[in-house]
Fold:
Amino acid sequence: MLGFGQDIGIDLGTATVIAYVKGKGIVLREPSVVAVNNQTGDVLAVGAEARRMLGRTPGNIVATRPLKDGVISDYTVTEKMLKHFINRACKRSMFSPRIMICIPSQVTEVEKKAVIDAATQAGARRVYLIEEPIAAAIGAGIDISKACGNMVVDIGGGTADIAVISLGGSVVSTSIKVAGDKFDEAIVKYIKRKHNMMIGERTAEDLKVTIGCVYPKLQDEKMEVKGRDMVTGLPKMATIYSSEMMEALAEPAQAIVEAVHSVLEKTPPELAADISDRGIYMTGGGSLVDGLDKLIQEETGINVMIAEDAVSCVALGTGKALDNLDTLDGRARK
Structure:
């Protein structure tokens, strides 16, 4: 039996939900997709099973992502999804857990309250919030308590959070709604324009992961994709090259580079000097797009490193922050 005061850290991402249980590590990693019967309101599937239904459901079933751009867009479905994941994360516990959830750095009070309410309704005894870049920095193994500047670029599914952290807090930060999902959208639009072919979200994501790049590759890679011909309306196949992907992803990648640039411009000179010595840390699934680190390095002239296990960094950081829940009690929002 798990004792009183079980603590869970949740990376409530637009694309993926990762749960960390104190003492056990990461126990759950599922796509944040929910399939709902829109006539009865019943949840039919959550996570990977629901993701397989995206774009393939009959009229009475809707597979949706309840989070958009890093914030809750469908409160009721988010609550049901959280309840499902919390029950799976603490199977044998009699007690309601304390939960720490990470949020983008620039969310409004209303958006914060929505997250707290959803987690409370889903069964949390107490809810704490932590900013994504801070959780990402802790997860990447950076000691954020020192009086020394560290820059973190966390690119998730819905938002890219960029922050300069010193003495345990954000000195300068920004959050832009350009991340993994925008990359996928850019690919869909490009293939529609260039190849006269409609592809789905999942195909776009496969393209991004397999041959996507934002910096010239030594060898042009290719991938076969299937979709629907815009002219005839019939199924069609096309060969897509990584050089085309670079063209497709240029705009969202440039938006991220500009956001990094704007944060550096606002950074106090002492901290800017620390960053030029220590480099920029990249975390989150979006940072794994081929060449994004090289592009930022070329544009800023600062060494860029992708954190080990970049996808789990935020969840690991949230998990490590659970150890300090009692000290956070004074500072964090309950």
User: Anything to note?
Assistant: The chain has a mean pLDDT of 89. The chain has eleven helices and 18 strands.
